[in-house]
């Protein structure tokens, strides 16, 4: 149930309101964005327009594509408030003051449809206070919907019902958030700062205070509190720069005032040095300087670090933290954390991690069930809102609950009483699995209860544990998704295409010949769908003069992808995240693509001195040039050809699935899914929809080769870019090969050719470029730095 929400009214065009409006528009909803009319001036839309314009310029972008903005209609509270009556969902996001929110709620109640959902995006004001004085009908459908900033990218949506909110409305909002907006919904209680900011403020403030009071440098702390412990690369101090110090301090100060009964209230107070930084406008990225300051020296970008005594920035040092290397050798997150805790008494950096991690986990246990009834909602709040690999209770399980409690006791750190009750009853973990179902310990009932299951989520690891993995090698697997649908899963490094992936792809094609299977999904649960070919393998072949082997690999990949394209059963790809080079070529050869909204797709081979040779160049010619030429014979091919050429030669990458469609990577029948967790399920449904009466495409001369004159026009465009110094000489060499393939090689006149003909040209160009030293430089540069070399 998603409550039939198609039109949303967002009241308040500040940073959050405008960003929420943008994300609703990303999801295909029609949005009214309204704000107050200024007291002075003739333009009543000045305030809302200002917020809307800032949203358009936001970085990272709030909109998935510029055209998405057409779904947002702006207006003001004086002239356009009656639009509230059209909305299925009315979301208030005005300034954080109780009385204005109450006054707006009264106006909304007078106009809103009887079945419209009404919510507030407040981050701290009690919801029941906002609803005071409203009717029972209003209170029944009123709740908090707290998005985390930026709403497009952070998955967390805290849903805060009051005692009067209808349970069906709560579930409808959660389902809508998950299925339509792509969020992860957690149910929070109507307590100060809810879950995420309650736990996050404590963790953030005590981490900074401990560092300042115990002599740890900014560089040291950030070196040990990022991916090493399952946190983002922004770690501790870079995170404050990203969020904005004023926001972090403001949230903590407001929380301090709101929780006089909190036994750890004093730990929420910002350290005096943070207040000094705030006074000096050292707020982070928004003011150009915070704990770090971006600068340039000797032609290179550098990040200087703040001296906390002088409040001036100095060159950052590379801290000597040997424990990081030692911990990384231990493997997964649990092994790393256990090693660090063990070393805490003999290593100062391990001690920092223990002495900040323990209080955070213990505080989380003391706040349940005050802020949430379930462990999973508390864990998800930190995982989805702060991008932690594991929340406090899943982290605790990794360390061992009993051992950790004993360690906390020895340090005088108090845990929630329910934790010791759990242990005393013989329960050794917060989560466990029984009969294939995951259970969580409840701090309310003191029993294990089922973890909520998302019916739209298919766990490939779960299928594996259930014996549904049919084939496996080091790089890929074949799994049974049920209902006769196969899944080809990549799990190579970076989900790159290597010999193991290709081998498993051929096994998938062989399986599709059997009547047992109705189709194939190509997808995985990695962060990225596929980053392209394994550059390490290519570099190794080049260094060892094994170009013949590379040629065979290209042929094998081309044959595999053409096998997907002309398979006897439907093939559906499910990309998300980086879908680059060969990863995109897989999608281009599928019958249908079900893409996550956050899919960054591109043929990026030019960045490493090569051209797409798995059929990507051929597909751009077939899709962007051949189709319009077949429907409108006699039309000039050059405009279509130019788009295909620029897309490849400039290595354009979509900033979303919406932009991927604009670039020609996705077609009209391809689908976009906002929640990446639902991709495999949605792709499976697509296979089943296509399976009845499926007929593969016909093999024929279906690619339009424009010939020599069109190729000359493209080459002249390359020269123009070089003359303007927008492209290097070698960029021109690579682009010349791209132009040759797109126009049919040495063909003089326009004509229709087979796909195989262009595949041959791709292979020839790829191998020729691979012999050039400048391509070697680009490949080695990418492997070393992760960035393209422009030589």
UniProtKB/TrEMBL annotation:
The keyword Signal applies. It holds the Pfam family 3HCDH_N. Pathway: Lipid metabolism; fatty acid beta-oxidation. The keyword rRNA processing does not apply. Residues 194-293 form the 3-hydroxyacyl-CoA dehydrogenase C-terminal domain. CDD domains: crotonase-like. It catalyses: a (3S)-3-hydroxyacyl-CoA + NAD(+) = a 3-oxoacyl-CoA + NADH + H(+). One of its GO terms (molecular function) is (3S)-3-hydroxyacyl-CoA dehydrogenase (NAD+) activity. Keywords: Fatty acid metabolism, Lipid degradation, Lipid metabolism, NAD, Oxidoreductase, Signal. InterPro entries: 3-OHacyl-CoA_DH_NAD-bd, 3HC_DH_C, 6-PGluconate_DH-like_C_sf, ClpP/crotonase-like_dom_sf, Enoyl-CoA_hydra/iso, NAD(P)-bd_dom_sf. Residues 1-21 form the signal peptide. Gene3D superfamilies: 1.10.1040.50, 2-enoyl-CoA Hydratase, Chain A, domain 1, NAD(P)-binding Rossmann-like Domain. One of its GO terms (biological process) is fatty acid beta-oxidation. It comes from the Bacteria. Residues 8-190 form the 3-hydroxyacyl-CoA dehydrogenase NAD binding domain. Belongs to the 3-hydroxyacyl-CoA dehydrogenase family. PANTHER family: 3-HYDROXYACYL-COA DEHYDROGENASE FAMILY PROTEIN, 3-HYDROXYACYL-COA DEHYDROGENASE-RELATED. This is 3-hydroxyacyl-CoA dehydrogenase/enoyl-CoA hydratase family protein.
